[in-house]
Write a structure and sequence with these properties.
With about 180 residues, this protein is mainly beta. About 5% of the residues lie in helices and about 50% in strands.
């Protein structure tokens, strides 16, 4: 299919569908029953690309030279040259910095912040909507995405992921959707 997706569009998927797409030098897989708003946010005189995952799951890879921001109902995440996976609903966000650097802040708890510098799915987290102050970010397992998918979308934008594949510690795809 050749549907043009613009830099500020909203993309929505149905119950048994997913979309793989590229927007300039960023590639995405948006899972079933998801809604993603591509946007731009002004900070002073600089525009930052801002994604808003309203609901659902997203795997994405970003170029190393341009800061990005992703927001969900429970988190704001600053991105620098990153592969990421997230699942969002009103109560929590599952977030994996697949590789790269992210700055994570809980929406309703500014005391809950975390910087993750990941080489290969090193520190997935849950960001909770309701938790004690300073306790909204918690450790999580690696779930529902794979290195093969990351390799696919990096290839779509002419890059390779920064990890070796296959790796001895990679146990295969871990997807429950």
């Amino acid at each position: 299919m050749k549907t043009r997706i613009g830099p500020t569009d909203t993309i929505e998927t149905g119950k048994r569908s997913e979309i793989v797409f590229v927007n300039i030098d960023t590639a995405y897989i948006l899972r079933a029953s998801s809604r993603l708003n591509l946007g731009r946010h002004a900070e002073g005189n600089v525009f930052t690309n801002t994604l808003r995952v309203l609901t659902g799951a997203l795997l994405a890879v970003f170029p190393p030279d341009r800061p990005q921001r992703v927001s969900t109902a429970t988190a704001t995440i600053g991105i620098r040259g990153t592969g990421l996976y997230l699942e969002s609903d009103p109560e929590q966000t599952y977030f994996c910095t697949c590789y790269g650097i992210t700055d994570i802040t809980a929406q309703n708890d500014k005391e809950s912040t975390k910087t993750v510098n990941s080489r290969h799915h090193d520190e997935p987290v849950y960001i909770l909507a309701k938790a004690a102050e300073g306790k909204s970010i918690r450790p999580a397992p690696f779930i529902n995405h794979s290195d093969e998918e990351l390799m696919l979308i990096e290839t779509l934008v002419g890059r390779e992921p920064p990890f070796l594949f296959p790796s001895e510690d990679y146990g295969g795809a871990r997807k429950d959707y």
